[in-house]
Amino acid sequence: MKRIVVVGTQWGDEGKGKITDFLAQKADIVVRFQGGNNAGHTVVFDGIKRSLHMLPSGILNPRIQNVMSNGMVINPKAFVEEIDKLENFNLKISDRAHIVLPYHLELDKAYEHFRGNEKIGTTHKGIGPAYTDKSSRLGLRVSTFINEERFKIKLAELLKVKNQELRKLGSPRIDLDDLYTEYLLYAKRMAPYVCDTSVYLNKAIEENKNILFEGAQGVLLCLDHGTYPFVTSSSPTASSVPLNTGIAPWLVDGAIGVTKAYTTRVGAGPMPSEILGDLADYIRKVGNEFGTTTGRPRRIGWLDTVVLRHTKRTSGLSFLAVTLLDVLTGIDDLKIAVSYQFKDQEIDYIPAEIEDFEACKPNYITMPGWKEDITLVKSFDELPLNTQNYLNKLNELVGVPLSIFSVGPDRNQTIMVKEIF
Ligand code: IMP
To answer: Does the pTM of the predicted model rise above 0.90?
Structure first.
């Protein structure tokens, strides 16, 4: 395969950054195709941990061309802060991507506040309001943002509408001149990277380059196929890649689904296999399950294969990459959700109504755990038999072959079972 999508199969935080960084060793180009700095991708190599929010996970490798495509929403201030931490990198930004402005962050906070108990638990990065403006044709695209004159005219138009909205919600008014003066500086920093990335990517495909499309969040947070309304405002599925990058659908060769060996979720919304109490605290501590972007403790659950089959169906998955396997070491019995009990029925799908999903109780099988330290293994055969059985069961239940597993945070703790590129 030449062009592969890295898909989060659960509620995000599956370790996509780590898998992208690992696969990027054989890639020419890494593309972020949706979301913005709501994402948090952690890459660890040579013992050093780096957190990325908006930049593609190939950015730390100067050999790789990184692309932020048209499907993204970009916060220019956060963008400048992120690139200022780097020295030597290659980046292209789509002229059609949308800009996140300070009023989007204010609106995000205000909507969450007024939702009260129904709040989604967003990252407060303005992602929902920025995509809403894109759909309502009230967005600001990168091409306009970097055009000094047009930016000011457009901003004046937009602020007329946005300041009314902010006033109604009791949020502070935004001053045109202040905003323009500050953001013009960011626009100048962004401009050298901007181009038509669809033209660039199509040319790269003609040249037979290896391309990784790096999804942010997970399919259960997809605006269409996730647990609506507890979702983000974009689609991390493999099927969203063509639209969000400007390539033809048939040019995507396949998708690698990244899944934790268990489940986590940040923010509100149902999670049928959630574990509460001491065991959850233990897994949270060992797995360092705290948000990269917000620092919030993540909710913990058993592996849920109804979720994974849902992802396989709605996104398409060619291979699985299983991460954080080492976190389960030392737990006697490992449960795996294989179906749900919903109103006297056994079901193998996620109901559309959130209240119905909330009513689903998982049916579990139990697999024996392992006690051996697996953090240094270098092949599947070196894993304890019970770990092998756990992985084999997962593949069997999801119906997707294993290509990678990882046994620790470092790049060299990632083991390839089947080559992808
Ligand atoms: P938003 O994307 O900030 O609007 O947040 C919507 C939902 O998606 C919330 O439940 C967030 O916690 C969740 N979310 C957004 N980005 C990520 C991520 O990168 N990892 C995990 N959850 C995320």
So the answer is: yes
